[in-house]
Each structure stands twice: as structure tokens, then as C-alpha cells.
Amino acid sequence: MPSSLPLGDPAPADGALPPQAAVAAGERGFSLYAHIPFCAVRCGYCDFNTYTAIELGGGASQANYAATAVSEVRFAAAALDASGVPRRRLSTVFFGGGTPTLLSAQDLTAILSAAVAEWGLEPGAEVTTEANPDSVTPASLQALAEAGFTRVSFGLQSAVPHVLKVLDRTHTPSRVPEAVRWARDAGLDVSLDLIYGTPGESRDDWRASLDAALACEPDHVSAYALIVEDGTKLAAQIRRGEVPEVDDDDHAEKYELADAVLGSAGFHWYEVSNWARGAAGPGPQSARFECRHNLAYWNGGDWWGIGPGAHSHVGGVRWWNVKHPTAYAGRLSQGVSPAAARETLDDGTRRVERVLLKVRLASGLPTSDLDAGGRAAVAGLIADGLVDGPTALRGRLVLTLRGRLLADAVVRALLP
């Protein structure tokens, strides 16, 4: 089952936010995340808050979900208004899951249209949906593009059948280039998600997946090391000895290979696990294909998360919705907030989170965000080859390739 929610303070039934949420809100961007919690099959490695049809009942059906999500959009707008947070046009919208495209294009459009009716979209706003390659058609992608979607992120994960089998992925690798072509025909930007380090995946398997991804000519690639979460089917298989353990050295070798292959193909890394087409550097062209929605998270922006288990953040106030779709729908049907709990971040916690997130970005972490102990650690990080020396001397910490492999160790050094 999906992992448990964090603890926190009680969340008010009317969704009201404390006064600090409105301070300087007009100077910050605003994004929307819409969680679609449905999957056709639960993958063996997955720990996300998702459900198959047989796991649900009551008022949580896919058929009713769009209407329920729209009701939260309207609830969110009213709650922000009542809290004195000025209305801002959305700079990014992201539909994640689960498999958002298990809902019809009409349902996804209904949720987006409700959000646009409340807040509007900034010119050139990024609107993304995740999708499995086997959950789209040329017609559905065209309908999404016509509704205002600009980007689709396909879960490729691997191009090697025996690796996909371990992951319990249901699509066939040959479907991916076809789905990408349909998205291109609809005028959508395309991102591909990959996972490396699956038990039984060889270096040649991983290279084959990278080559297959690049052959699709995507605009963006995400590559994540497989993490075995407690309570998943894969964790049980490893515990029983049915599949081998994951290996940190194997992960490091495959990350280095990904960075080399993607770099040679004209992609630049802009976050430890993310590469975008185009040369690195300042200016809008270099950032054209970076995922602006995720950058909003990493840079501490404001966003409202729609859906069961979705997290939100506005002005240092963070909250999260109840997990189960039935409970989520029930609260909204009663006109009360679906939030399970919330927390108000103090200055120290916000500083720690800035370090945790910004150090992973190619744009770097300003040394001014560090306390005295963190600044004292910088010289050692330079000496160990974990951060770029000249850039650090100019007041910004940027990870080297070795530093990206040891990003957690860098964070520990900066937060003594």
C-alpha cells in the first residue's frame, strides 16, 4: 500500500491560511498540481498514492473523479481569496499520478478548464500531463493539445523487456516511439522518464534504454535510480531472495553513463536527475525544455495540490490531503477541506529546505543561504572535488559530476 502521510497540525475545515501565506505572494509564482490516483496495474516498485479499480469503491470511481477534482479547484480559489492571498495566473500546471491519461481527455480538460477559469494562465504557461505509452491515442493527445496542454511526460522506465518485467510495467517498448510521434503530431513537447539500477539490469541493458530514449528525440529526460520502498512487491521479492539487491556502485556507474550519453546527444543537466535538450547556460533558449513545474518546487514556489494525498505549499505553509479517494471525495461533498494536516515552516526549516533542494540544481546554491557552519564546509567540498571551485568563490555552489553522485553527503556537510 502507499506510504503513510506525515504528522502535522490540524488543518481548518474552511482551508483558511495564516496571514504569513499572503506576505509578498504577488512576488512569487503560482502553480497547480493535479493528482490522478488511478493505475491499470500497480507496479511492483511503486510506493505512490495510487489505486487500481479493484482497490476502490464508494464515491471514488474514475467516472466521478473529474467532478470531485473540479470541486477542490473551486474550494482552493475561495480559500485563498478568504485568506487574503492575491489571485495570480498559473505559471505551470502538472497532472501526475498514477496514470492521469486513464481519465478521458474530456475529464482532464474539465479540471484544467476549471483552474483556468479561477486563476487564468500566464502567457507561455507550461501544462504537463504524465502518461503511460499504452494509455494514449492520437485523438486523445490532439484533444489535450487543443485544450491547452503543452507537454507530455511518458513513463518509458526501460526499453528492455526483462527489466520491464521486474518492474511490472505493462507497456511494450515498441509502443513508446509511436506514442512520442503522436504527441509530436499534436504539437506537444515530450519528456521521457527512465529508471536505472533495476535488479538484473546490465550496463548494456541501461545503454540500450538510453539509446532507445534518444532515438525518440525527446525534449527532456528524467533518469532516477531505483529505490526499493518498504511494503512494495519488489521489496518482498528481494527479501525472499527472488531478485538480487540493488547496488549503490551499480547506480553510480549507470548515472555516469547516463550523463555522458545524454551530454553527447545535446542535453544538459539542470537538476541531479533531469536533463533538457539544448546547451546549458543563462538565457531562455537554454531553459526552453527544462520542467518549469518541478523548478517551481525546487525553488520554493507556491502551489496548490489537487487530489487525494496531494501536497500544497503557499508562503511557508504546507499541507497535505487525506490519502484515500473515498475520504477525499467525501470531504469535498460536505464542503470542507480535504486537508489531513498542515505545518507552518519556521525560518530555520525553510533554510534547510533551500539547501536540500537548491544544491541539486545546476543553477547552484547561493552561499548566502548557508549558516556559518555550512560556509566553513565549502573549502573541504572544493578540495574533495564535490563542488566547482571557481563558482563557489563567486558565491554559488554548483555540484561537479562527483558531487552529483554524492549529493546527500554534500548536503550533510552543509547542514552540520
Describe this structure in words.
The protein folds into 2 domains: 19-304, Alpha-Beta Barrel (TIM Barrel); 347-416, Arc Repressor Mutant, subunit A (Orthogonal Bundle), CATH 1.10.10. 38% of the residues lie in helices and 19% in strands. The protein has 15 helices and 14 strands. It has helices spanning 62-82, 105-119, 138-147, 161-167, 175-185, 203-215, 233-239, 248-264, 292-298, 325-333, 347-358, 372-383, 389-393, 401-405, 407-414; strands at 30-36, 90-97, 121-131, 151-157, 189-196, 220-225, 267-271, 274-277, 302-306, 311-314, 317-321, 339-344, 365-366, 396-397. InterPro entries: Aldolase_TIM, Coproporphyrinogen-III_oxidase, Elp3/MiaA/NifB-like_rSAM, HemW-like, rSAM, rSAM_sf.
CATH architecture of the largest domain: Alpha-Beta Barrel
Q: Main beta sheet, described?
A: 9 strands, mixed
**pLDDT below 50 for ≥5 consecutive residues: which ranges?**
none
Note the gap between the termini. 35 Å
**CATH topology annotation of the largest domain:** TIM Barrel
Number of strands: 14
Q: Topology as H/E string?
A: EHEHEHEHHEHEHHEEHEEEHEHEHHEHH
| CATH structural class of the largest domain | Alpha Beta
- Lateral strand order in the biggest sheet: 7-8-6-5-4-3-2-1-9
Q: Any idea what the shape is?
A: globular
- Number of helical elements: 15
* Category by helix and strand content: alpha/beta
InterPro entries: Aldolase_TIM, Coproporphyrinogen-III_oxidase, Elp3/MiaA/NifB-like_rSAM, HemW-like, rSAM, rSAM_sf
Protein name: Heme chaperone HemW
Pfam families: Radical_SAM
Family: Belongs to the anaerobic coproporphyrinogen-III oxidase family. HemW subfamily.
